[in-house]
Write a structure and sequence with these properties.
about 220 residues; single chain; 8-stranded parallel beta sheet; alpha/beta
């Protein structure tokens, strides 16, 4: 059975001075809250870290989808799981032993995700899928919000989806970057079933309605409408 699509608004596109309110504005509509953690080292930007996640966790019941764009995720990732994150995703490019970290995250109570950046081939990581709960395919270059969707990245999504079907795995295929009403159907048709949307949600007059529209488009493309 095809699972229902997950829409994960990225708070990177929200008003940081009103984070609690911005998250509450999508309650009842969003499936996950996508939290972009950038360290000004693995990627050029610096965003939020563990203290903000710990505080924000108290403001909403929506599951947190934490995306760690940081070096040395083995050191930092478990704390996000312990802070109550539902899913913690770290980058393949920053981790020497993804399987060990995935096991650590699961032991700490979170689901484990592996992110593949724009310039990284996905093939070397397909064998790791049984150890993961989520694989995040970047459809932009990691580190900046507001970039244009790159449809050529969907070949990676197709490769992952084929491997999942062949091995009968249960794993979410997430896409992040430029996901909006005019791109989400392409991503869903390629095999994605979890969608990070920043500006498309928080740039809308009604973020909750924007989420509902995105979910409808994705569900239609996935054949679960």
């Amino acid at each position: 059975m095809t699972p229902s699509p997950i829409i994960a608004p990225s708070i990177l596109a929200s008003d940081f001075s009103r984070l609690g309110e911005e998250v509450r504005a999508i309650e009842g509509a969003a499936d996950w809250v996508h939290v972009d953690v950038m360290d000004n080292h693995f990627v050029p930007n610096l965003t939020i870290g563990l203290p903000v996640v710990q505080s924000l966790r108290k403001a909403t019941a929506i599951p947190f989808d934490v995306h760690l764009m940081i070096t040395d995720p083995q050191r930092w990732a478990p704390a996000y799981a312990e802070a109550g994150a539902h899913n913690v995703t770290f980058h393949a490019e920053a981790c020497d032993d993804p399987v060990a970290l995935a096991k650590t995250l699961r032991a700490a109570g979170a689901k484990a995700g592996l992110a593949i950046d724009r310039d990284t081939p996905v093939e070397p990581y397909l064998e790791l899928l049984p150890y993961l709960d989520t694989i995040l395919i970047m459809t932009i270059k990691a580190g900046f919000g507001g970039q244009a969707f790159m449809p050529e990245m969907l070949d990676k999504v197709r490769d992952v989806r084929r491997r999942i079907r062949v091995n009968d795995l249960e794993i979410r295929v997430e896409v992040d970057g430029g996901i909006a009403a005019d791109t989400i159907e392409q991503a869903a048709e390629a095999g994605a079933d979890a969608f990070v949307a920043g500006t498309a949600v928080y740039g809308a007059a009604d973020p909750a309605e924007a989420i509902r529209k995105l979910r409808g488009l994705a569900a239609g493309a996935m054949g679960v409408a």
